[in-house]
Specification:
This protein has 208 residues and is mainly alpha-helical. 60% of the residues lie in helices and 7% in strands. The protein has a two-stranded antiparallel ribbon with strand order 1-2.
Amino acid sequence: MARPCRATPPPTSSDVLWHGTTYYVLLDGLLTPLLSDGFNTDTALQLTLLNWQAIGTAGLLTRLVHVTVGRARPLTEGCSNDPKAKSYCEFPGASFIAGHAAMTSTNAGLACANHRHLELYGGGIPDAAVRPILVTTAAGVGVLRMIADKHWLSDTVVAWVLGGSIGYGMPYLLRYRYARRLLVPLPNTALLPWGDQTSGGLQLRGVF
């Protein structure tokens, strides 16, 4: 006897937070340079590419682990193969690693990297506030998924580490470390704007 098909479940709070952080990071990287920096298309394009690279890499690795490792979710414990059973052993997707936690952590890592190195909101409290908010959201998503018996603790911890490492590490390794090396080539030095009545540019000043 075939078990009747179930309707698609409504989005959970963890679904909303995952997709919400993804939209935030992508729109932030695209629109903020355009709207607040004189329609800076170069920065908007580079940020968009960096964000998509990290999100795409995290998504690919997450799905690859799902296919190769799998692992049953906690909610399947004690299920029955009887089609009439209340807890029927349907396959709800692989548990390892926690996809929601991995992707939300990737978004948190991207937000931390972008707002630390570029100060998209002009620096200070606005940029500093983005980082703990996104990190707390990623932590909350992982906890919510465990409470719902969607993932084991080990699924979630690995997802947090992997997603955060990709989200922060990829833009840093591909872009920001080179910018920092260029802008601060020596200790105790800084590049400062300079100009007079006839010319202008940058000057390197330092304390030796």
